[in-house]
Amino acid sequence: RKSFDIAVIPGDGIGKEVMPEGLRVIDAVAERFSLDLAYRHIDWASCDYYDETGSMMPPDWRPQIGECDALYFGAVGWPARVPDHVSLWGSLLKFRRDFDQYINLRPVRLFEGVPCPLANRKPGDIDFFVVRENTEGEYTALGGRMFEGTERELVIQESVFTRTGTDRVLRYAFELAQSRPRKHLTVATKSNGIAVSMPYWDERADLMAQQYPGITVDRQHIDILTARFVLQPTRFDVVVASNLFGDILSDLGPACAGTIGLAPSANLNPDRLFPSLFEPVHGSAPDIYGKGIANPVAMIWSGALMLDFLGRDPTCPDGERYRRAHDAILSAIETVLAKGPRTPDLGGAARTEDLGKAIAELVKTIDVA
Ligand code: NAD
Ligand code: IPM
Ligand code: MN
Q1: How far is Cα 282 from Cα 19, in angstroms, rounded to an integer?
Q2: Whose CA is nearest to atom 5 of ligand 2?
Q3: Where would I find the Isopropylmalate dehydrogenase-like domain in this sequence (predicted)?
Q4: Domain boundary residue among 257, 283, 313?
Q5: Cβ-Cβ contacts under 8 Å for 337 (sequence gap 6 or more)
């Protein structure tokens, strides 16, 4: 098989600080497990590029990265210079849609050694996945303003829920729940207040549940669901949600498990027709950019998810090596979180590169099954 081509897109702010640590770790496992990876370094999809050119990406962005096997993405956004909806609809949200990355898979886990803001919680108590719909729902640019500047000013923002879009994310979540020992699925909804889309979401979920009699389905309104993330996190195994609800749950979950600096995500086109995108859940963090204190674990863990996904490509004869590389990175992350060094969000005083180097060193020798 040819090597895997990976577009490396650091973006803005701490995206530029955590990306080198992600690559440091990937390079180390690639060497150990003889992975065949080729990077394509991309200096657009950033607000710097926007300042220079007036757009987030060059006109030929798609031929430049569309044939890659994966996109490894830092973070985009610098709201003081470019309005967020301009920078994000001009980059990340465009990738998710144009590459039909309809699953946004976001693991949430409490690790040993990470201070948990919830009382009396230990590792194992928080261990679930948020499966977020990633191409439609509440995220649209459909709508408009009328009577601007008058008392009658009116703003309409539409949502879109297609049967295909709803069913495919539900299907993925049911299958994921099916593969887990607890076989428990929470369906995030809000069918009391949002009277059209959410009853539809429930209806599709109920219909699919009939095909999975072994799965316990727990339908919860999003408001009480957020309360239970805090009060009863052991209740969750797989949580499936629309685009907006999934966005909110995937910051709240990691915050309950200590810091959003650990949270990775996989924006998947499971059919592999287009590249999938792997990125931290967090953003460009302008408040800490330049200080060298961002936690690189979310970026590094996202890299592990990328290798795992690439290794499952049916055309990859040595997929096992990619899975072992993933496992080595995860074990190294666990070790570093338990023993340090720790960045300030973990209660320490270490720097971004201290964690990156410690994890990169460990993956070279750490035991993997
Ligand atoms: P943010 O995630 O960038 O930051 C929120 C808070 O978490 C900040 O206090 C920040 O310092 C902290 N934080 C985030 N990542 C951290 C890390 N790795 N280590 C330690 N602390 C960390 O969210 P925001 O402030 O709402 O957004 C800033 C910009 O990033 C905006 O332009 C936003 O649109 C963009 N954004 C981009 C993405 C993305 O590219 N995927 C995701 C979220 C936000
Ligand atoms: C995320 C981010 C993005 C989202 C923003 C930056 C558009 O918050 O990946 O969670 O809302 O999806
Ligand atoms: Mn978010």
Answers
A1: 13
A2: 88
A3: 5-359
A4: 257
A5: 111, 112, 113, 114, 262, 297, 346
Secondary structure of residue 293 in the 3-state scheme: coil
Mutating to test ligand 1, I would choose from 94, 250, 284, 297 the residue with most ligand atoms within 8 A of its C-beta, which is 284
pLDDT of residue 1: 61
Q: In this structure, are 215 and 125 located in the same domain?
A: yes
Q: How far is CA 150 from CA 105, 154, 155, in A?
A: 43, 9, 12
CB-based pocket (< 6 A), ligand 1: 14, 75-77, 79, 84, 88, 92, 260-261, 279, 282-288, 294-295, 298, 345
Ligand 1 nearest atom to the CA of residue 11, by list position:
40
- 329 and 249 in a single domain? The answer is no
Q: How far is the CA of 132 from the centre of ligand 3 (A)?
A: 11
Give the pLDDT confidence score for residue 212 in this predicted structure. Answer: 98
Peptide bond into 341 cis (omega under 30): yes
> Token match 């957020």: residue?
226
Segment 60-88, tens digit of pLDDT: 999 999 999 999 999 999 999 999 999 99
State the total domains in the chain.
Answer: 2
Looking at residue 244, which CATH number applies to its domain? 3.40.718.10
Cβ burial, residue 1 (10 Å; 0-12/13-18/19+): exposed
pLDDT digits (tens, 9 = 90+) for 31-44: 999 999 999 999 99
Q: What is the value of ipTM here, to two decimals?
A: 0.99
Whether residue 303 lies inside any domain: the answer is yes
Regions of the chain with pLDDT less than 50 = none
With contact defined as beta carbons under 8 Å apart, do 294 and 353 qualify?
A: no
Q: Please work out, in degrees rounded to the nearest 5, the angle formed at the alpha carbon of residue 171 by the alpha carbons of 200 and 223.
A: 50
Rounded to 10 deg, the angle between the 319-339 and 352-363 helix axes is: 130
For ligand 3, the distance from its centroid to the CA atom of residue 168, given in whole angstroms, is 21
The range of the structural domain enclosing residue 126 comes to 116-257
Q: So what's the pLDDT on residue 317?
A: 87
Sequence-distant (6+) residues with CB within 8 A of 193 are none
Write down how long the chain is.
369
pLDDT tens digits, residue range 203-259?
999 999 999 999 999 999 999 999 999 999 999 999 999 999 999 999 999 999 999
